[in-house]
Specification:
This protein has about 475 residues and is mainly α. Helix content is about 45%, strand content about 5%. The chain is built from twelve helices and seven strands. The protein has a three-stranded antiparallel β-sheet with strand order 2-1-7. A two-stranded antiparallel ribbon has the order 3-4. The structure holds benzoyl coenzyme A (BYC). Benzoyl coenzyme A binds next to helix 2, helix 5 and helix 9.
């Protein structure tokens, strides 16, 4: 079979030869109805009968892998797609460095592998659940389509992890696959596994922040798993990354368009002080200080997804050859971290200090640092929009000690500048740094749906380019069909 092209003849499209792997095909077909029930209950609210201009993967060839067409979401062909197998691939790090990559699960690392695959799998449906109400308030058909594209692809990423569980982990893999449909974002009894995936995504600014910051954690984690010595996981993650790029594009351009519109409105109204919140809000746009608060919230929640700065879990996964570093194969070292150290931010006698730790246990910190560097790029672009409009205001990333629930800083309070403060100061000033109830209510008041073809809500600029070279006034979603 040609791994580049996807077989659409089976109920579950795939490039892993499912038609000759009857047992796995049967297990996946058995899981399919539960998935459709979940999509019906927890997928996008409304619009299930609308025609949405979606891309579907028909190949895993990076030169051309997707085709665009109108699809009703429940009829989207969720499939199993793995990047092509690299011939003679070796394990690129850890104690098995240089040995042939595994095509089957190595017995001694089974539990660690399963845990990582389940955690990854759990985030995918969680994000769909978090975003399910947003369709009702979309600022345009273009944005509505992007939301649904992200949602169906997160659904596909769930399929990707379920395939690995069902093919390689036998009965407990099947049980884990069922549990992925049982947990619910924000549920008191059966929540999703990681903190940020139980938070609400109440409005479109949060959606853009989520796709910029939280999907970018996904990018970093997928890159690390794409290095895995377990080849099927590596190939799965490599193809997921191709899709993930669009999700972060939605976030980056979404925030950019909000910033642009705010700056344009301020200029038109002759406002010189972007921190005059009442005046700016009276124009029906989101003021820059509130955008900064949303950024503070989503960045800090996303930092928690990297786990503790110093982690034996991370060291074990690396040693075992299961989870590598960002761009592992491009790093010039022994890929085993035998004697290396890495500077870690720690709280020492009440002061934040950089302390050298064994690089092996500091892998979460390293990945988080790579993530922060990647995040900065968007800020440069957004700040360019602000400075080009003639305003002296800079969006910044808060300090890593700010608003943390996991790791070294979880028991202290810090300002966005990284100054440690006591509980009373935090309580008194929290609303200066994180969105308050009143901020949420103001943003909610702007969230009125715009469904005319080519029209955009007044708080966001139109995009610079359309999807699939279509113009801005293309009917991206045919709502009533
Ligand atoms: N919330 O040694 P520690 C994506 C637990 S996003 C709750 O500090 P470790 C996407 C941890 O499980 C990417 N619990 O950390 C984005 C452990 O518990 P146990 C998703 C947490 O294990 C947008 C204990 O604390 N993929 O794809 O080195 C839309 C001590 O752990 C949290 C992955 O995350 C937390 N935030 O690292 C859609 C990749 N953090 O086992 C999709 C797989 C830690 O002692 N995951 N804990 O009971 C991993 O690599 C790691 O498990 C973690 C944690 C980075 C999550």
């Amino acid at each position: 079979m040609n791994f580049m092209n996807v077989d659409y003849s089976t109920k579950i499209p795939n490039n892993v030869n499912l038609s000759e792997d009857r047992q796995v095909l049967k297990a996946l077909e058995g899981w399919h109805p539960g998935y459709m029930d979940w999509w019906g209950d927890m997928g996008p609210e409304g619009f299930q009968q609308s025609l949405v201009y979606l891309r579907t993967a028909y190949s895993v060839d990076p030169r051309g892998w997707a085709k665009f067409d109108y699809v009703k979401m429940p009829e989207y062909r969720w499939g199993i797609l793995l990047a092509p197998q690299e011939e003679n691939r070796v394990i690129p790090f850890g104690e098995h460095y240089g040995k042939p990559a595994w095509q089957e699960v190595p017995g001694e690392h089974r539990a660690t592998l399963r845990r990582l695959i389940v955690i990854q799998g759990d985030t995918e449906p969680a994000s769909v659940e978090q975003q399910r109400h947003l369709g009702k308030t979309a600022p345009s058909l273009y944005d509505l389509r992007n939301l649904f594209q992200v949602n169906v692809e997160e659904g596909r990423h769930l399929w990707a992890m379920v395939y690995l569980l069902q093919k390689y982990f036998g009965r407990d893999g099947r049980e884990e696959a069922d549990d992925l449909l049982r947990r619910r974002s924000g549920d008191a009894d059966s929540p999703r596994m990681l903190g940020a995936f139980n938070e609400a995504t109440p409005d479109w600014l949060s959606f853009f922040m989520f796709t910029y910051f939280t999907d970018r954690d996904g990018k970093m984690q997928l890159h690390s798993l794409a290095q895995s010595g377990f080849d099927p996981l590596s190939r799965t993650c490599r193809f997921m990354l191709t899709e993930e790029a669009h999700h972060m594009f939605v976030g980056e351009t979404g925030i950019s368009r909000v910033v642009q519109r705010t700056c344009d409105a301020m200029r038109e109204a002759g406002i010189t002080d972007p921190t005059d919140i009442a005046k700016v809000r009276a124009l029906g746009v989101i003021d820059l200080p509130t955008i900064q608060k949303k950024l503070n919230l989503h960045y800090s929640l996303s930092l928690d997804l990297f786990g503790s700065e110093v982690s034996t879990n991370a060291a074990n996964a690396f040693n075992a050859g299961i989870k590598g570093r960002y761009k592992e194969t491009q790093i010039d070292d022994d890929h085993q971290l035998k004697n290396a150290t890495y500077p870690v931010l720690k709280l020492v006698d009440g002061v934040i200090k950089r302390v050298d730790e064994p690089a092996l246990t500091a892998l979460n910190m390293r990945l988080r640092d790579d993530y922060t560097q990647d995040c900065v790029k968007g800020l440069l672009r957004w700040n360019k929009v602000i400075s080009t409009a003639g305003y002296q205001f800079k969006l910044t990333l808060p300090d890593v000690a700010f608003h943390r629930q996991i790791g070294e800083f979880k028991d202290v309070h810090a300002t966005p500048d990284g100054v440690l403060i006591d509980d009373a100061t935090w309580n008194a000033r929290r609303n200066e740094w994180l969105p308050s109830t009143a901020d949420g209510e103001f943003i909610a008041s702007l969230m009125k749906p715009v469904t005319e073809v080519g029209a955009y809500a007044p708080w966001i600029s139109p995009p610079k380019v359309g999807i699939d070279n279509k113009p801005g006034d293309f009917e991206y979603v045919k709502i009533d069909t």
